[in-house]
Write a structure and sequence with these properties.
33% helix; five-stranded mixed sheet; disordered N terminus; 243 residues
């Protein structure tokens, strides 16, 4: 679709700039006619570019949702292979090498772990937007130490990188926030790390049950008090509060 828009824009500009002079003006266009033609061309270009940017933005958002959905599938596979246990959180700084969501979940999908990604410590490298580690809408690059576009909700397993619970003990997994768009750097965090304006005044949340939602930021963030809503509608940050 973006390619067809560019072709259409080019055809419109060509048509405007190759119009033949009117019969009443054998010597060529008048100044007014030329100005009107240029104005029309400018409007067409602006509309075409706006449409192209809108399509690109939607495509990035769809890809991000797909990535979170794949992390949800990885979580389900991990639980099936491990007697319903969820993966350990791992160290928030991304340094855990054996037991962490960013180590164990990739294994469930048969892909490289986080530590095998060269871009995690090298900000000069282009980010592979098709990778499930990357949100195409997030411009953040490595700080030289780590890079996590998605972060795990630390309230599911509970505080401490060594804590672990079974998915069957979660009261409502279809509402429980599991992974979400990360506004900061940690691999594991709470509600203070959530984005509020990444995908059209909101963010994507992958829930423990496997679904991915896109609520408006005002639904999970109190902008008057500048703090998150602890129990937003349809979203559980702390599963035990619903028991």
């Amino acid at each position: 679709m973006p390619g067809s828009m560019a072709v259409k824009c080019s055809e419109n500009l060509h048509a405007l700039t190759t119009l033949k002079p009117c019969a009443g003006h054998p010597s060529g266009w008048t100044l007014i006619e030329a100005c009107l033609s240029l104005a029309m061309a400018s409007v067409m270009v602006s509309l075409s570019l706006a449409g192209l940017q809108r399509v690109q933005k939607q495509a990035r958002s769809v890809m991000c949702r797909s990535h979170l959905g794949q992390w949800g599938q990885a979580t389900a596979l991990y639980c099936l292979d491990n007697q319903d246990w969820l993966p350990l959180d791992g160290a928030p700084n991304g340094r855990s090498l054996r037991q962490a969501w960013y180590v164990n979940l990739p294994l469930s999908l048969g892909i490289q772990s986080y530590h095998e990604q060269a871009w995690r410590t090298n900000r000069a490298l282009s980010l592979p937007t098709s990778s499930i580690w990357i949100c195409p809408s997030n411009p953040r690059r490595s700080n030289g130490i780590n890079l996590f576009h998605y972060t795990l909700n630390r309230h599911v397993n509970g505080s401490g990188s060594g804590n672990q619970v079974k998915i069957t003990t979660i009261p409502n997994p279809d509402q429980t926030i599991w992974l979400y768009d990360n506004a900061r750097e940690a691999a594991v965090a709470g509600w203070n790390h959530v984005h509020t304006n990444l995908h059209g005044l909101g963010a994507h949340f992958g829930q423990l049950g496997g679904s991915v939602i896109h609520p408006h930021a005002k639904d999970y963030w109190d902008f008057e008090l500048d703090r998150p809503r602890i129990m937003p509608r349809g979203m559980d940050w702390i599963p035990s509060l619903r028991e």
